[in-house]
Amino acid sequence: MTYQLVFQFKGDSLVDFDMMVNVEEKMKVQIGDLGEVDGHDMGSGEINIFVMTEDPMAAFSPTKSVLKKLNLLSAVTVAYRDIESDSFVVVWPENSSLEFSVA
User: Residue 31 is part of which domain span?
Assistant: First the structure.
């Protein structure tokens, strides 16, 4: 896979962990063959779910309905990077100028 797509939420409590596992499972179903949910990490006040894909925008698109249904669309920042690079491109929120990094 060429790209790493990252879904980043703020938080690090047990409730947040349960939410992360729930979101991750639902994403696996929605993404299907567009990518592979490649795990998660939690710490430093953030939760990250990682997806490996050849097309980050195509893989992100079906996850929006999951995030919206769980009332998390406004609580997530989504970005991708070429796996050969450390620079991320933010795709959500749309038209964002946020700096993105994974702690």
Answer: 3-92
